[in-house]
Predict the 3D structure of the following.
Amino acid sequence: MAQPKEYARRTAAAGSVLWTHGQPRLARLEIELTERCNNSCIHCYINRPADDVAARARELSVAVLGRILAEAAELGCLTVRFTGGEPLLRPDFEEIYLIARKLGMRVALFTNAALVTPAIAGLLKRVPPGPKVEVSVYGMSEASSRKVTGIKGAFEASRRGLRLLLESAVPVVVKGTMLPPVKAEQEELAAWAGTLPGAEGRPSFSVLFDLHCRRDPKKSREILRLRLPPGEAARILADNAGFKEEIPDFLASFSEAPGPGLFSCGAGLKSACLDAYGTLYPCMLLRSPEAAYDVRRGTLRAALDGPFRLLRERTTARPEYLDRCGRCFLKGLCEQCPARSWIECGDLDSPVEYFCEVTHALAREVGILDPGKKSWESGGVGKARRTHRKRRS
Amino acid sequence: MMEPKIDMNDVYAPSEDIVAREIEGELIIVPIASGIGDLEDELYTLNPTGRLIWAKLDGKKDLRTIAAVMAAEHESSPGEIEEDVIGFVKELLIRRIVVRTGGK
């Protein structure tokens, strides 16, 4: 019997192959609706106090956000991420959210859930965001949560918000951190997360903490103290499900040393980040003045076609970079990028020691680098490729 | 769910529960209300026949008119075109992508 014709093809948005003719000019836009947060997390690279009146006054209006979202939609943007700070601190969140959804954008929402009300849960039930709401969980008790968030009652508020979302059948995914006050609760958090409706595998945990994105030295010093030693960070990363199995194939695809080019990601090419006040950057972390574009006085397209394109073409002649990162076959594994060089060192092309050490420890952990070897030395490359060939055969 | 009966005198339009976007030559249908699709994060694309019919579903023309316009524009037989129009609307009605807005 002949199968009935299918006129509409269903496809899961995440990871789907939607494009047969060409790629959209802008695939993804990240918007920090506010830098303010109801929490005051010890590791956060951006947050300002919830009651920061001056910051609130500078935040983009609904009208301006609507204009920017409409242009993003015209450029083919299918996913917008609302983050912060805490995006639910905006009293006009519902209005902004509905603008994005009515433009046909999927909304990736990052929240700590503490400000979820029955009305917000109802909104997300009625008009689902598309991707699961991503809820950051800071601890499994009031005491540990308070040590991370600095806020009394943050634990219960977050759990209450999460319950409201789950009772409204809003799909969520929880994320943890490997911060000192909550590191010991990792297994407890993973077990609890596994009991939540729709849980898929082990939750992700932030392991490598970025310094303050606007290079606040005091805050950056505080974050530095929270970082795990490179060996410990590498062991945790290597223990992630599937990592050791996938790494040989990953390196086979991304083991080429990058040379003098600085950008290997899609930042500023197919994606961009808008801060709470109207400055567009290629990514959340790259906030150097040369990467900044005032989109209140221009357009997304002008930023992508102009300054971001020029920035992405940048190469380096810095010997320190060319002799290390430029020749490193582990570059695809390493978190160093122009943004992190800028955050850590104030330029776009300095090697970042911490990420370099973590990456080397990780390569040793999974057996693709001999102890004492550096990945930019030819022996290191040889060992990795031999290991890869052996595993594939 | 019972299969809906499609009358060629009825008028259909895209549902307000979806947003149809044309991006880089692809028509992407984005559900914005709960209960469309089996998963929480699904999109729809249409096959070429579906796209032709979709472009004519304006909430004004009934399906018979749409089929007649298509028969004038394409070489397929009127019977095949009517079969496609009915099949398309039935499928998208079940998926809540279109709604009946008028008819006899």
Remarks:
- Residues 38 and 167 of chain A are 23 Å apart (CA to CA).
